[in-house]
Amino acid sequence: MRGKNVALRAEAIEALERARREGESYSDVVVRLAGARRPMADTIEALRRMEPVESDELDRLVQEIRRDGRKERPRGAKL
Asked: Does this model's pTM top 0.70?
């Protein structure tokens, strides 16, 4: 397998560390995050399968998703 050395800013390394799961290499993290986008049809289908939720519960879930998204992909860090 061919590799390449790259230089990363400290903030990018910290973002990789936060996103890294047990047993993953940095390359594994980059590949997982770079390929994380899914077709919109998959998202729509997942929403169709969801049970209805109350408005307050939906607000809480949206806030949780936003908070988790910021943890995984900090703004300003481009990988």
From this structure: no
